[in-house]
């Protein structure tokens, strides 16, 4: 297994980094490889006689392909084949029902399956050539005639045919049954608010394009470098779709240049690249363009209605939150949206609703903090609106309704240091200096406003295995088929192992990104540290015990009469706590045994019986200052304090970076990001980074991150919950609330562009 190190280019910390402990700020072990271009991504792996595939995207939104003429394309020198639904290989499983592990309920999209067109930009052909340039040119020459049908892509036009999600997905948690009599109580509430909120479509824009390089071995074995959040999910998909046995396919993803959920499902370039490799018996690479990355999933457009009722003292009496979101015709994509509204504030009467409208669009897909990014936004803007109805400070309103038990189930929280987030965040921000009146702060031509919001995200743990091999040279190699989508998995796992074994960081390597490694879940839901990290800690503890047993057998062993508890692992050695001078280097213990290596395996199963008795979540309090130009309606987010409770932090540096990234994206959600659809033709129009705006350096000012103390041994044996998604939740709401405080204008849709703010 350790021979994968070179194939995967497993990174290692710089010599001299030395000992590390959990919670330290540690630079990425893969940082040098990344900034020097040594880290290779899916499209950067090569093969002998590699062929290049370029995808031809359909130009209609709904209908069928009447005819395809590939004659001119095939005449281009270097072009080998044009694969379409008419000549694709018939494959054992391709025409059967198949899914990837993360598929929503329904029937997944099958590229080049038949003549039907289901959504704009659907792939209709793959041109394969000896060079990328020939393939790209030939792709422009493929002539396709269509028969079009009427399409429906506008959510607002079709709200009347909404349905409850029925084609269910494993792990889908429908909104809980109503609690109490929310509608009646709201009707009679002395203080109440009602708001309708709209969030447009957003697209993931990771730096790395989706790509698959299929390297075909002489024996027909396929080694596939794929951009994915799980090598094992892509391997499973390829095996099932193409009827290839597990040992005929290896998928690798040692480096992934961002994904944010878009890589949770295998995307269509993978199926097309494998199809070409099998049909032509060659190695093939397919890379999508930025435009094509707007054709396979997005954060769905969502309409929400929130009603809150309260007593004059601020006690919430009713919460009603209903959401309507788009899905595709073939699948019920669910992100629930409303569930957090039953988990955040103490309230006796709660009713939550969630419905879908099927449109002629590609299925939506998870995008960072799916559901919460839009759902908690609406709730937290509504809470701000209520605070003005009550003439109460927005933070005081949240504290008044602080939930010590989960309001819908009555369960205790595994840990919940949200109160500390409020306190420490408010103090860092200077919230007590905030004037209550709107339009009360101004500097020159800018109005200044301060707003805040709460964030919440699930704290999940899945199942994982890990293995660890200690070598006589004192190096440790830990492995699991985990993924690092830029989040810092390599470094976090090395820290956990180095901390457990008392080894310098540079003596530890963590292998991930290969489907043949021990089972790991998809990197998603901010669950990787709690899951894979716990498996890594578990395997290291097994290794410690085996090493201790060996050490006791050494001639004149200082441990002969010691108990395991009397010993500790530190400085790359085993030593007695009482006599630290009597240290035996770990390598020497192995050398005595003669084996030269010691291997352990561990399987980490979440303690579901225990976990199910608790509400498990991460929390945040976000404080924002905006400056709004009165004449232009432009908004600058000049100051953000994000206070986070996410369990024990493994790498203070990477965790802070994750939260900063989330805040930046929250600012994008608030001010910039929206994919606009021309519903007359049913197409996303701004499918490029020139017109799909994301936050850039000029938009980002001061971001201060606070981690409050929290240690959660129910979510994971490490005490960690997980950071990443929690960083984004609530940020856009805090911006919205700050804009209101600055201007007195309530903007109930995102993004809050100048035309809405003015
Ligand atoms: Mo994340 S949206 O679970 O990759």
Automatic annotation (TrEMBL):
It comes from the Bacteria. SUPFAM superfamilies: CO dehydrogenase molybdoprotein N-domain-like, Molybdenum cofactor-binding domain. Transmembrane segments: none annotated. Signal peptide: none annotated. One of its GO terms (molecular function) is oxidoreductase activity. Residues 36-150 form the Aldehyde oxidase/xanthine dehydrogenase a/b hammerhead domain. PANTHER family: DEHYDROGENASE, XANTHINE DEHYDROGENASE. This is Aldehyde oxidase. It comes from Massilia violaceinigra. The lineage of its organism: Bacteria, Pseudomonadati, Pseudomonadota, Betaproteobacteria, Burkholderiales.
């Amino acid at each position: 297994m350790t021979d994968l190190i070179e194939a995967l280019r497993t990174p290692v910390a710089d010599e001299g980094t030395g000992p590390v402990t959990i919670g330290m700020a540690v630079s990425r072990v893969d940082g040098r490889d990344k900034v020097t271009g040594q880290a290779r991504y899916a499209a950067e792996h090569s093969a002998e006689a590699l062929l290049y595939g370029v995808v031809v995207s359909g130009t209609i939104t709904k209908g069928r392909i009447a005819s395809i003429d590939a004659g001119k394309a095939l005449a281009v020198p270097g072009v080998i084949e044009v694969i379409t639904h008419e000549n694709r290989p018939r494959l054992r499983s391709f025409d059967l029902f198949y899914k990837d592990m993360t598929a929503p309920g329904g029937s997944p999209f099958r590229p080049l399956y038949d003549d039907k067109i289901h959504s704009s930009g659907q792939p209709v052909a793959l041109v394969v050539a000896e060079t990328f340039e020939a393939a790209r040119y030939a792709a422009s020459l493929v002539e396709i005639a269509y028969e079009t049908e009427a399409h429906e892509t506008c959510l607002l036009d079709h709200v009347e045919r909404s349905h409850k999600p029925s084609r269910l997905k494993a792990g889908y948690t429908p909104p809980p049954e109503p609690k109490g009599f929310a509608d009646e109580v709201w009707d009679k509430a002395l203080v109440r608010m009602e708001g309708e909120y709209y969030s447009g479509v957003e697209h993931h824009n990771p730096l790395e394009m989706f790509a698959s390089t299929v390297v075909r071995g002489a024996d027909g074995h396929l080694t596939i470098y794929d951009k994915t959040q799980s090598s094992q999910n892509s391997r499973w998909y390829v095996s099932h779709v193409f009827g290839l046995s597990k040992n005929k396919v290896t998928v690798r993803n040692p480096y992934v240049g961002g994904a944010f959920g878009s890589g949770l499902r295998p995307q269509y370039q993978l199926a097309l690249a494998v199809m070409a490799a099998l049909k032509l018996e060659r190695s093939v690479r397919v890379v999508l363009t930025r435009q094509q990355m707007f054709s396979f999933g997005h954060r769905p457009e969502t309409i929400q209605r929130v009603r809150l009722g309260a007593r004059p003292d601020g006690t919430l009496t009713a919460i009603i939150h209903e959401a309507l979101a788009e899905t595709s015709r073939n699948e019920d994509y669910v992100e629930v949206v409303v569930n957090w509204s039953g988990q955040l504030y103490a309230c006796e009467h709660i009713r939550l609703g969630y419905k879908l409208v099927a449109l002629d669009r590609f299925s939506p897909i998870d995008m960072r903090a799916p559901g919460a990014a839009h759902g908690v936004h609406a709730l937290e803007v509504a809470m701000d609106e209520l605070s003005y109805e009550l003439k109460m400070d927005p933070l005081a309103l949240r504290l008044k309704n602080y939930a010590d038990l989960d309001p819908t189930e009555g369960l205790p929280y595994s840990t919940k240091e949200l109160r500390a987030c409020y306190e420490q965040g408010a103090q860092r921000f200077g919230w007590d200096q905030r004037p209550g009146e709107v339009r009360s702060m101004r500097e020159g031509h800018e109005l200044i406003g301060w707003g805040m919001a709460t964030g919440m995200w699930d704290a999940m743990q899945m199942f994982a295995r890990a293995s660890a091999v200690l070598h006589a040279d004192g190096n440790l190699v830990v492995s699991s088929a985990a993924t690092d989508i830029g989040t810092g998995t390599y470094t976090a796992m090395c820290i956990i192992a180095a901390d457990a074994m008392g080894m310098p960081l540079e003596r530890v390597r963590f292998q991930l990104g290969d489907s043949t490694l021990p089972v790991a879940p998809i990197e998603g839901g901010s669950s990787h540290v709690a899951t894979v990290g716990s498996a890594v800690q578990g395997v290291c503890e097994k290794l410690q015990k085996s090493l201790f047993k060996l050490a006791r057998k050494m001639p004149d062993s200082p441990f002969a009469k010691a108990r395991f508890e009397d010993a500790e692992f530190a400085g790359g050695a085993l030593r007695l706590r009482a006599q630290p001078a009597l240290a035996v280097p770990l390598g020497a213990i192995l050398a005595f045994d003669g084996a030269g290596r010691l291997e352990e395996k561990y399987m980490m199963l979440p303690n579901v019986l225990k976990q199910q008795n608790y509400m498990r979540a991460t929390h945040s309090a976000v404080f924002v200052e905006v400056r709004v130009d009165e004449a232009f309606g432009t908004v600058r987010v000049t100051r953000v304090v994000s206070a986070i409770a996410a369990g024990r932090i493994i790498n203070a540096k990477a965790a802070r970076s994750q939260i900063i990234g989330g805040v930046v994206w929250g600012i994008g959600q608030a001010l910039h990001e929206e994919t606009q659809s021309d519903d007359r033709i049913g197409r996303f129009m701004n499918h490029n980074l020139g017109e799909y705006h994301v936050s850039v350096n000029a938009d980002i000012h001061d971001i201060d991150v606070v981690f409050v103390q929290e240690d959660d041994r129910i979510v994971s044996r490490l005490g960690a919950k997980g950071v990443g998604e929690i960083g984004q939740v609530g940020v856009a709401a805090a911006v919205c609330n700050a804009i209101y405080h600055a201007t007195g204008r309530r903007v109930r849709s995102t993004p809050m562009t100048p035309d809405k703010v003015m």
